[in-house]
Amino acid sequence: MENNEVMFNEYELDQIKEVINIGASHSSTALSQLVNKKVIISVPEITIDKVENISNIIGDNEKVVTAILLNVLGDAPGNIVFMFTHDDATRNFIKLISNKEESKAQYLDEFDLSILKETGNILAGASLNALSVFLGASIIQSVSESITDMLGSIVNTIMGEIGQRSSTAIICRVTFEIEGEDVKNPELYYFIDPKATGKILEMIKKKLGA
Amino acid sequence: MTKDITLKVGEMVAVKGKYLIKSIGIGSCVVVVIFDKEENIAAMCHSMLPSPLEGDKSKGQGRFVDNVQIYDAKYVESTIPKMLDLVLKLGGRKDKLKAKIVGGATMFKSFSPDNSSVGTNNVTLTKKMLNDLKLTIKSENTGGNHGRSVSFNTTNAVMSVNSRI
């Protein structure tokens, strides 16, 4: 991709969506095994827009969220971000995984963050592993990092990073739901480095033998 | 009555009169205000990156809020001279102009392997440019690892910075 503008036709977008779908469904299988419950995932939503517009698309900029960020390195670079809102849904999620006693603290503590970080690690690992097998590519993940801040600040910082290389960004959003539990939509975002999408499409082409 | 203007990322505005200019979700981005306190003139931008990518020709359209023109301001490099220009056009006096800077946080450690993140680059370039234009930096709230929200009141030149953490 020499050009900074990213343009895809419908067919290519479908391919990217499918790749994300494969990754996300492996994540959900991992999550399902982790909590021993049925997990439902949404169809990935793909958005392509200018880097400065992304934060307005994602949601309420002032909402405080905890984001777990993983850098993806290797043949298909990008970022994976899990977003957890600061409410009962996230607390229930943590309780479900760790059997932690109920706490009424306003913000998440060190233990909670550690649980979320590890969950992020497991889910991203499952998803990237599936992708690397499917694409026949070498994909490496970094150590996960957690941050609690305003949604807008977090997204704009990630977009600033992507903005150094491209004027447009591709984001894929997937949400999970755990059956029978009040765990509302932990969100999973794939921020794909636009330079990587060309490579991903090439690898799919090779795989299809076309 | 004070009017509110909310800037999104990559936008800039220059006004004269009673305004409260706000911007939320500042991470590594930088918010710069150039103002003339007595004349109630101010320009504020929320820029994302220091300088443009090679070959980036995409330009924002800008928009209007209550008949106030909002300009495109994604890059610090091109925005600061434009802000000064607009402030002077509105009647700001060059020798009375002052500036305030907010933002430029380094939120993720993994994005700054050698201590140079987008945030620090933004702040460094902003300060250098303001210095070159001989504008005094009245106050700043930059760096750190947390996001910010700001609002600037043109009547008393008070800038309030909020963090949620």
How many domains in all of chain B?
A: 1
The CATH superfamily of chain A appears as: CheC-like
Largest sheet, strands/sense/barrel of chain A: 8 strands, antiparallel
Radius of gyration of chain B: 15 Å
- What amount of the residues of chain B lies in strands? 35-45%
Low-confidence stretches of chain B: none
Radius of gyration of chain A: 17 Å
The overall strand count of chain A is 8
Derived structural class of chain B: alpha+beta
Shape of chain B: globular
Distance between the termini of chain A: 20 Å
Low-confidence stretches of chain A: none
Q: Using CB atoms under 8 Å apart, which protein chain pair has the greatest interface?
A: A-B, 37 and 32 residues
Work out the helicity level of chain B. Answer: 10-25%
Oligomer: heterodimer
Number of strands of chain B: 11
Portion in strands of chain A: 25-35%
- Biggest sheet of chain B: strands side by side, in what order? 6-7-2-5-4-8-9
Instruction: Summarize model confidence as the mean pLDDT of chain A.
Output: 84
Order of helices and strands of chain B: EEEEEEEHEHEEE
**Classification by helices and strands of chain A:** alpha+beta
Short structural summary:
The complex is a heterodimer of chains A (210) and B (165). Chain A is 46% helix and 27% strand. Chain A is α+β, with helices and mostly antiparallel strands.
Structure description:
The complex is a heterodimer of chains A (210) and B (165). Chain A contains 6 helices and 8 strands. Chain A is of the alpha+beta class. In chain A, a hairpin with a 5-residue loop joins strand 7 and strand 8 (184-192). The model of chain A has no long low-confidence stretch (mean pLDDT 84). The mean pLDDT of chain B is 90. Chain B is globular, with a radius of gyration of 15 Å. Chain B starts with a strand and ends with a strand. Chain B has a single domain (3-162), classed as 60s Ribosomal Protein L30, Chain: A (2-Layer Sandwich). In chain B, helix 1 packs parallel to helix 2 (118-132). In chain B, the strands form 2 sheets. In chain B, strands 6-7-2-5-4-8-9 form a 7-stranded mixed sheet, covered by helices on one side. A 4-stranded mixed sheet of chain B has the order 1-3-10-11, with no helix packed on it. Chain B has 165 residues and is an alpha+beta fold.
